[in-house]
Write a structure and sequence with these properties.
With 303 residues, this protein is mainly α. The chain is 78% helix and 0% strand. The structure holds protoporphyrin IX containing FE and farnesyl diphosphate.
């Protein structure tokens, strides 16, 4: 008699666990910031007067395609993820989800996502979505075990969604569109070099050729972080050039300030190369990007 309710409770708990595992496969925390970038790109592309329906469509479509790429990334990396502390408890390596079911889930998300983009915002965002998927899943993912230049390829995949957001509302890629892509591209170097340093033992154990692994002194990771931050500082100013009738000085000054903040955090990491400065740099990167995105919304069209 008493086994009935217990079984039902068990079943409910299992379903809840499976739902949370499928959600975890999509790397939702990264997706949230990525989708904010897509929304800001669409907003900037429409000069602050976005077609709300198209904006929502490109966010939904990109979310589905990005989620699919993250699921497939984990299907392909299961043997590596199993060897690393940070990833060993993920749903596939821990055995909570099968690789087959996950691959089906990823394929479904991707097919629906690309079709949705095609139907709602047109060929270009859908095409870039598909290319980004291929770049992330079939080029970046295996490349991690071959060469530390994998991060450069990963950063292209990470930044391309900016162009999906832009092209969903504006067919012409101008200097500002290129600058948005460049901001997200260069931001990833300080962001990831901090992570690559913090998890260097994990990455080495998983056979991942990150800069922090191939050069254990951290010098090369530091150089990548500082170079990325320098380039970020320069490109972040560009959207302020000639946006209305004249350069937006407030935007440019605040962007410079943010750029200096990232450069100082990167420089401190480069000179110290310890966990404390790496953690500070990772934290700085996660503060900087939302602030820079907010600046893009608040200032350029207000002068
Ligand atoms: C080369 C490209 C990138 C790599 C290799 C990378 C890698 C990672 C890794 C491994 C983490 C987890 C750190 C941890 O567990 O402590 C992380 C965190 C994070 N990343 Fe990235 N990332 C990249 C690009 C991006 C992009 C394009 C975005 C969004 C615009 C992003 C947003 C985030 C966020 C919000 C977190 C914190 C969430 C969390 O704690 O899991 N990343 N990144
Ligand atoms: C539209 C579309 C397809 C967008 C995809 C964009 C995307 C998911 C970008 C994330 C960039 C990136 C390289 C993250 C790290 O992955 P990782 O595999 O190094 O992280 P991990 O070690 O935690 O698995």
């Amino acid at each position: 008699m008493s086994s009935g309710p217990a079984t039902l409770t068990d079943r409910k708990a299992r379903v809840k666990q499976q739902l949370s595992d499928y959600l975890e496969l999509t790397k939702p925390k990264i997706a949230v910031l990525l989708l904010v970038c897509v929304a800001i790109a669409a907003y900037c592309a429409s000069n602050g007067q976005p077609d709300v329906a198209r904006l929502i469509h490109v966010i939904v479509g990109t979310a589905l395609v990005a989620a699919s790429s993250c699921v497939w990334n984990q299907c392909l990396e299961v043997h590596v993820d199993r060897r690393m502390n940070r990833t060993a408890q993920r749903p596939i390596p821990s055995g909570r989800l099968s690789r087959y079911a996950s691959a089906l889930f990823g394929t479904l998300l991707g097919s629906v996502g690309i079709s949705y983009l095609l139907a709602t915002v047109g060929v270009m965002p859908a095409l870039i979505g598909a290319l980004t998927w291929i770049l992330y899943v079939f080029i970046y993912t295996p490349m991690k075990q071959v060469t530390p230049w994998n991060t450069t390829v990963g950063a292209i995949a990470g930044a391309l969604p900016m162009l999906m957001g832009w092209l969903a509302v504006n067919p012409v890629l101008d200097l500002k569109a290129v600058a948005l892509f460049a901001i997200l591209f260069f931001w990833q170097f300080p962001h990831f070099m901090a992570i690559a340093w913090l998890y260097r033992e994990d990455y080495a154990q998983g056979g991942m050729k990150m800069w922090s692994v191939v050069d254990g002194s951290g010098t090369k990771a530091g150089i990548q972080a500082v170079s990325g931050a320098m380039a970020l500082l320069l490109v972040s100013v560009v959207p302020g050039i000639g946006q209305v009738a004249m350069p937006n000085v407030f935007y440019m000054l605040l962007s410079l300030l943010g750029g200096v903040f990232m450069l100082v955090a990167s420089w401190r990491f480069f000179t110290s190369r310890d966990d404390r400065t790496a953690r500070q740099l990772l934290f700085a990167s996660l503060i900087y990007l939302p602030c820079q995105l907010a600046l893009l919304v608040i200032l350029p069209s207000s002068v």
